[in-house]
Amino acid sequence: MMLRRTFVWMLAAFLLCAPVMTAAQAPFKPEAAVKDSEYDRLDGTGRSGKEVHVIEWEGNIELRAKPVGSLVGLAVVIDDKNKKNSALVFGYRFDIDAQTQLIRRAPMTTPIKPGFRVYKDRAEKEEDHFIITNQVLKDKNLIPFKLDPEPAQRYPSGHPLSGIPVEDGRTSPAVVVPPAEPAPAAPIRGKAPASEKASPSHEEDSGAIRSFNF
After folding, report:
1. What is the mean pLDDT of residues 63-91?
2. Beta-sheet strands, E only, within 124-183
3. Which residues have C-beta within 8 Å of that of residue 206, sequence separation ≥ 6?
4. pLDDT tens-digit profile of 126-174?
5. How far lies 15's CA from each of 4, 5, 12, 24, 78, in Å?
6. In angstroms, rounded to a whole number, what is the distance separating the alpha carbons of residues 147 and 152?
7. Global pTM value
């Protein structure tokens, strides 16, 4: 009888915890892709009202977000498929919508290698302060920070490489559409028309997209 009662209590506890476990493991939803004028550049003036700065410091990367307490989740991924244009990919989750993840990129001019550590400075009272480093930092105010799972996205929503098009079908954020080539001038007395110039390309030989600013 006692064994049966224990089993019933264990089953009830599992059923109560199951929804919580499922919610915690659910993937975060990406932000909606919007036109350039509505794109949140995280400079404090966008729709989120949040401000984020990525700073190089003594071989480390500092990330500072305002207002303090607003950055509730962070993912960090190294994207070095193109060695000439390596970048850090950040997935930000803010308190206004903790289930939505904003993907942003920053050029990786300071070499950060796999196995990096992330610390949060709990002494900072005016902003959320994180340090990304390959070093072991010993400071009583720096505590290890658990990152969110690695996001599938590597580019912000709306970027052609993100796989998430702008909802209204218009041009993706920050895309610069090259002007149409002018019609060639009419030939002048036996002179051949000037040879047409090659159309401008959005991609460098290295594969970097030049016209985007994410």
Report:
1. 94
2. 128-133, 142-144
3. 82, 84, 85
4. 999 999 999 999 999 999 999 999 988 999 998 888 888 775 433 333 3
5. 17, 16, 5, 15, 38
6. 14
7. 0.66
Strand order across the 100-107 sheet: 29-30, 100-107, 87-94, 71-79
Q: How many helices (H) and strands (E) does the chain have?
A: 1, 9
SS3 of 73, please?
strand
How far is it, in rounded angstroms, from Cα 103 to Cα 118? 18
Report d(CA 136, CA 134) in Å as an integer: 7
Q: Rank 84-88, 176-180, 193-197 by mean pLDDT and report only the highest.
A: 84-88
At residue 121, φ and ψ (nearest 5 deg) are -90, 105
